[in-house]
User: Which sequence fits this backbone?
């Protein structure tokens, strides 16, 4: 390529470069102008917006200032009104105080005048009193001291009479309240203590495997039965009763020994005097164990501890002792419970009371062997085994042989009477029981106006249906009183009998 061509190309290139340069420059300038215009426009709009916000802020500030000003003015106005009201109240109080002060001053003046008047009248009265006193002394011939002594003597006599009346009323009231309290305590004790009642008899029936055993019990020429009766002290009755023999004796412990020994002999089958003696000895040991266990169980049931071992065995003997058909050990346990319940209500020593109740009939354990009443025997036993004075006195006083001097003795006496008076405690024969019920109804039916009578509650209550046209309400009251008196006079019974009269008037009509 020649130089000219190269130069042309270079020239063309330079021209193109220059043209491009100027074109870019113009475009850049146009963009710069456009950007400046846009920036000016934005600045102008921003200025307008700032001015608008500024105006809004000024308006809001003016509104807030106005609102605060209104609130301040309202608060100031309320305070001024409150202050004005307080000022008015203070003014009124001052006026009231001024009026009261004036009134008090006037009253003080009046009181001063009245005090002066009172002093003057008092002086006049004193002078008149002295004159009258002098005149009375002259007329009566007595000095004031003598008259005073006479008046005091009269007042003292009158006061003594009034005090005596007051004491009598208080004693009657205390007696009524005491009786009510005693009834409540006794009824509570009876309700909380329910003991079994065991009725026993003086004979025991022993079943036999066959009638052939009767001959073996009798033995050759009666040697076996004689040996048995001699060793046990119990009569052995062999009669026509099929497959049974009867043990008869008043000592329940001996009867129990004989029963156990005979049952062992019947089971063993070897019946002869030596074997009888061996079985009787075994039965005695067994019964002695039963006595000790029964005594220990009684002390455990009543929570009475520390009793002498010999006394515990004597307590066990009471298991086989009856009084009017009532088991003495169960009776003693019941008395201990009843006395303890009443003692807890009265705040008395429960343990000593229970101990006295448990041991009150201990003399009955040996009264078949020792001469004298069971009370005396029981006192001697209690002294022998170092029981406390309260227990000994309760034993001595439980049947009224001595006057009870302690509350414990009174409680034991009451518990003994309660236990003995329970229905069923004192056994009576069926025949005498039926006779008593029949006699009870006969007495009630014998009165005028009685329609029908019913003995209920095992003879403890009798209910009487009266004729309403013959007996009125007042007559019914009189009727039950008369029946109760006649029952008391003609019947023997344990405890008490409740007499109830029922009067009913029934009118029937039918609507047709």
Assistant:
């Amino acid at each position: 390529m020649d130089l000219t061509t190269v130069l042309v190309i270079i020239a063309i290139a330079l021209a193109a470069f220059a043209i491009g340069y100027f074109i870019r420059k113009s475009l850049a300038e146009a963009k710069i102008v456009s950007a400046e215009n846009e920036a000016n426009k934005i600045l102008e709009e921003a200025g307008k917006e700032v001015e608008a916000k500024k105006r809004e802020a000024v308006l809001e500030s003016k509104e807030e200032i106005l609102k605060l000003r209104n609130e301040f003015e309202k608060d100031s106005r309320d305070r001024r009104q409150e202050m004005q009201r307080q000022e008015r109240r203070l003014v009124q109080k001052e006026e009231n105080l001024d009026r009261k002060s004036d009134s008090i001053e006037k009253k003080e003046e009046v009181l001063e005048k009245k005090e002066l008047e009172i002093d003057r009248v008092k002086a006049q009265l004193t002078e008149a009193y002295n004159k009258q006193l002098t005149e009375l002394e002259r007329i009566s011939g007595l000095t004031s001291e003598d008259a005073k002594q006479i008046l005091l003597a009269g007042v003292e006599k009158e006061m003594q009479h009034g005090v005596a009346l007051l004491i009598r009323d208080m004693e009657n009231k205390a007696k009524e309240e005491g009786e009510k309290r005693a009834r409540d305590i006794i009824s509570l004790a009876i309700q909380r203590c329910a003991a079994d009642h065991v009725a026993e008899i003086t004979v025991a029936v022993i079943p036999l495997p066959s009638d052939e055993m009767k001959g073996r019990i009798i033995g050759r020429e009666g040697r076996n039965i004689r040996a048995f009766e001699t060793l046990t002290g119990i009569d052995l009755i062999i009669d026509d009763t099929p497959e049974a023999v009867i043990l008869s004796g008043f000592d329940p412990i001996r009867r129990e020994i004989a029963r156990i020994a005979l049952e062992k002999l019947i089971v063993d089958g070897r019946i002869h005097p030596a074997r009888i003696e061996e079985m009787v000895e075994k039965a005695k040991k067994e019964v002695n164990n039963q006595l000790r266990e029964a005594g220990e169980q009684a002390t455990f049931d009543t929570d009475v501890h520390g009793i002498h071992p010999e006394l515990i065995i004597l307590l066990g003997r009471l298991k086989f002792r009856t009084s009017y058909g009532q088991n003495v050990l169960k009776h003693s346990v019941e008395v201990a419970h009843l006395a303890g319940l009443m003692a807890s209500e009265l705040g008395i020593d429960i343990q000593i009371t229970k101990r006295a109740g448990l041991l009150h009939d201990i003399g009955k354990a040996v009264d078949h062997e020792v001469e004298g009443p069971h009370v005396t025997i029981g006192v001697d036993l209690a002294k022998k085994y170092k029981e406390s004075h309260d227990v000994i006195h309760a034993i001595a006083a439980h049947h009224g042989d001595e006057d009870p001097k302690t509350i414990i003795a009174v409680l034991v006496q009451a518990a003994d009477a309660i236990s003995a008076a329970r229905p069923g405690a004192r056994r009576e024969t069926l025949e005498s029981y039926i006779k008593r019920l029949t006699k009870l109804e006969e007495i009630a039916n014998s009165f005028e106006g009685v329609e029908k009578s019913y003995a209920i509650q095992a003879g403890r209550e009798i209910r009487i249906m009266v004729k309403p046209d013959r007996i009125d309400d007042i007559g019914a009251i009189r009727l039950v009183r008369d029946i109760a008196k006649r029952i008391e006079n003609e019947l023997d019974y344990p405890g008490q009998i409740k007499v109830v009269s029922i009067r009913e008037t029934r009118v029937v009509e039918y609507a047709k």
In short: The radius of gyration is 59 Å. Strands lie at 203-207, 235-237, 244-248, 322-323, 326-327, 450-456, 461-466, 498-503. The chain has 14 helices and eight strands. The longest helix spans residues 3-140.
